[in-house]
Amino acid sequence: MTEARSIVDAAGIEALLEALRGQGYSLIGPTVRDEAIVYDEIATLNDLPRGVGDEQEGGHYRLTRRNDEALFGYVVGPQSWKKLLHPPMLRLWSARREGDELRVEAEPEAREKFAFIGARSCELHAIAIQDRVFLGGPYVDPHYRARREDVFVVAVNCGVAGGACFCVSMDTGPKATFGFDLALTEIVAGRSFLVEAGTEAGSALVETLPHRAATKAEIEEAEAILARTAENMGRSLEAGDVRQLLARNLEHPRWDEVASRCLACTNCTMVCPTCFCASVEDTSDLAGLESARSRRWDSCFTLDFSYMHGGSVRQSVKSRYRQWMTHKLSTWRDQFGTSGCVGCGRCIVWCPVGIDITEEARAIRESDGQKGAT
Amino acid sequence: MALMADAFVAARAADPMVPRVARIAERKREIEDVVTLAIEGGAFDFAPGQFNMLTAFGVGEAAISVSGDPANGARLIHTIRAVGAVSRALAELRPGEPIGLRGPFGRGWPLLEAEGHDVVVLAGGLGLAPLRPALYRLLAEREKYGRIVLLFGARSPQDILFRDELEAWRGRLDLEVEATVDHARGDWRGNVGVVTTLIARASFDPARTLAMLCGPEIMMRFVANALHDMGVAEERIHLSMERNMKCAIGWCGHCQFGPVFVCRDGPVFPYSQLRGLIAKKEI
User: Fold this and answer.
1) What is the pLDDT of residue A218?
2) Residue B236 sits in which domain range?
3) I need a labelling partner for A284 at 20 to 30 A (CA). Which of A209, A228, B37, B268 fits?
């Protein structure tokens, strides 16, 4: 592995994409669609959001024009890599009746090899969190594994902080520290990128690109950029004891207050890069000869989510918001040994009424122990 | 980027979400809306208190506790109340028809821990079904336990599940069986009232008792509190919880009950683990 860091220019990035495509990877990266930055297939450097920035706040997202040609001058958009590793809709199996026999056939696993271009540190943490759900227990999800195991990750260290970002609080960024083959820091907008290899494969790939060794000044510049990003987080959350804080405040009046604003629209769970909940749906043909089961993303904000005969366990929006937030920040630790929140801020930005998880945690902290009407 | 080093420790196994196909061998109507299905064709190993995910093809899948004898691995028994689309379709299955099967899943009754103790088995309504495998085991290894008490509550005499078996057990000298109903017509000569009223009359030593409860959540809460008040340790009062389940292996998120997944960490839990949550609404 090359210990020394290298510098590539825009042509080097183009060559990187070309080389990965040559190795059989489908390139997925940030690109502008419907006035947002989404993760989708990219062909060349021109598909990246060059010179695009973003403005993010509670319930607010706008793309802006930067005054430079930066390729990665924005933060995370509404989508995450979750949509590729844990697809929103996936057929699990199909069954066919042949005379007296009934045959069940498992859905074949995806064979596509993905290269994730531009994954941020918080997102690498989110992927590691979902790895624990689908790969880390006694059962392994073969579909998740098939999609996950060959991913080539080109991470990007964040050169700007978003208005809703709080990775520093969650200790998940802004610098990628694991889970990447290559990590880029854009040190001169659109022109110069510091490259760090995280794996042998990444290091071997750099050797094939037009590159040169980074100078001490360039390495220091990258560090300065990251330090600046860390200082400019739009949000903060006191994470140290938030698990215990929420666990002892299940009857806090703030849950009623937030429920009066929450629309239970499920947006926060859809944009969250760690939310993994899913439901299954069975379908059949009219003759009853064929049937199939699919898995699709589900959300704890729906009334149906906790439905049992006789009614739903979580009838009130209050209980559903509480379930989501305590899961993210508290019970996730009991279940998986990590936080379920990586501080990406998506749930804040994409909430139609701008509910802010950091503000909710703060409000409970400020009146810790208060009890509301039950 | 390859995965975190320890992520692939688990060997490549068959997809746990794909059911295998089994056949209905026998269908028995128990009471109104409740049938017992016997599945044959394989060796079925399970621990009392565990459940399977049963598929009615083309309709859907539901979590159903095993209600049969763990000593009989050739016949897998489930008792199902027809309450929703899936359970209704399952309850309609006839001998010879295919059924999808995944499992067994979950943590069952603490029978090993019960050894040397008096055992109180308390069921409400269909809650007797997941407890029946434990009863079979307790009776098969009768010498390992102290007193055994079976307390059962139903809505009405017509709703008493496994009635023939209960009556046969009642004739045994090494087992105390008491039943009560919420309401009855004049021809019922048994107890009327909630199941908690049976506890005070039953003979067991609270200090050396292990209890297994299954029934409506509110019933289990009252019973657990009553047992605890009598001196049964919270750690030795075990409850079988029920929640919506779509996967049974901790992937779908539906069965979360605070910090636990009912499918993976339960469905049987010691009361000491749930006490703080079960009294709260809408957890």
Assistant:
1) 97
2) 111-278
3) B37
